C-alpha cells in the first residue's frame, strides 16, 4: 500500500479519487437573498433524513432499499457519518482506518479486499454516493463524529490530514454537502473543527458546509463568521419542555422556531435549518425507554414551526432508521427494537413529503416569516400559531387546531381565497373567498387537541 505525506502525517494514497458517477446533479448553492438553497437555478427545499450509519451498517442491497424508499417519500438529503468510531468497519468487515488513526484511512487497490472479495470501506461509500445521485439524492457527509474527535484527542494536524483526504476524494461528486462536527459543542476541540472546516473549504469550495452541534445548540454560536460555514443548522434535540433543564444553553425547549429566529437575525445572512429534532419513535429525553415516544404529530410540529419561522428546510429522523437497527439484533440504543426496514415506513416519514410539497407549491424566494399575520393570540408552546408569507400568499400553522384571527392586509389584492391544508395527508379543502381584512376569523376542522394540526392557506385574488 502506497503512502502519502500530508501535513507531516502519514496518510493513505488514494488510487482513484472518484470512481465515476452515472448521474451528475446540480450542485446546491445559496439563493441570492442568502436565506434558501437553489439547485440548477430552481428552489431546493432541504428535506433531510438522519441515515447516520448508512455507510457502516448497510450492505449494497440494503443501501439500495433505503435510498429507494426515501427517494419515493420525497426526501432529497441524507445525513450520514463517514466515521462514527475509530473502530469503524462496514457491513463487509473492512475497516475505515489503519490502526484506528484518523489521519490514516485504510484504502486498498480496486474496490474489494480479502479472499472473499468483500467491499472496501471507502469504495463502498463511493458506490452509495453514486447510487444516491442516480435517485436525485444528496449526501451530507459528516467527516468524523464528535465523540471520536473528543475521546481520541484528535489534533489540528491530524484533522487537517484527514480532511485533505476526504476533500480530494469527494470534491468531484456533484451530490455532496459537508456537515462538519457531530453532536458536540463547538468548544469541544474547537481548533480541530476549524482545521477540518478550513481544509475542506480550501480544497473543495464548491460544496456547501455547515456544523452539526449537540442538542439545544446551534452552529452559529461558534462558527457563524467562519468562511467555511455556508449555512447554519441546529439540533433542537429530543427533550420535552419538562425535561429541558440545561442552564448553559439557550434553553428554548421544544420551541425550535426560536433557534431559527436567532439565526435569522444574524449578519452576515445565512440559511438555517433544524438538522436534528426529536426522532419519531424515540423516548422522550432519549435514555429512559419506559417513557412515551415521540410520534408523527410531534415531528410534524417541529417541521412546520421551524420552516415557517424562516428555515430553509428540515431534517426528519427515526430512532430505528438512524441507527439502522436490523432484525435479529439485540435491543439497540434508546430502546430500538423495530427493524429499520419497518421504521422507514412510519407515518411521520411520509408526512414530511407533504411539508416539502406545500413549500414548493407557491413562489419560493420571496417567502418571509411573518408573525404579524396573527392578529391576536399568537400563543405559547403547543398553542403557538406560526405564520409565513410571500407577496401573494400566506400560510399559518396550528398544531392543535385552535381558532385563528388573521391579518391579511400585507397580501396583494383586495380579496383572498382561503383553504385548509392537512399535514397528515397533504390534501387541501377550500374554505371560500373573502374580502381582505385585519382580523379574519378561521376555525380549523375538528376539536382542539394536540396533533390536530392544520395550515391555513390564503391566496391573493
From TrEMBL:
<dbReference type="InterPro" id="IPR025277">
    <property type="entry name" value="Apiosidase-like_cat_dom"/>
</dbReference>
<protein>
    <submittedName>
        <fullName>DUF4038 domain-containing protein</fullName>
    </submittedName>
</protein>
<dbReference type="InterPro" id="IPR017853">
    <property type="entry name" value="GH"/>
</dbReference>
<dbReference type="Pfam" id="PF13204">
    <property type="entry name" value="Apiosidase"/>
</dbReference>
<dbReference type="Pfam" id="PF12904">
    <property type="entry name" value="Collagen_bind_2"/>
</dbReference>
<feature type="domain" description="Apiosidase-like catalytic">
    <location>
        <begin position="31"/>
        <end position="365"/>
    </location>
</feature>
<feature type="domain" description="Putative collagen-binding">
    <location>
        <begin position="368"/>
        <end position="459"/>
    </location>
</feature>
<dbReference type="InterPro" id="IPR024749">
    <property type="entry name" value="Collagen-bd_put"/>
</dbReference>
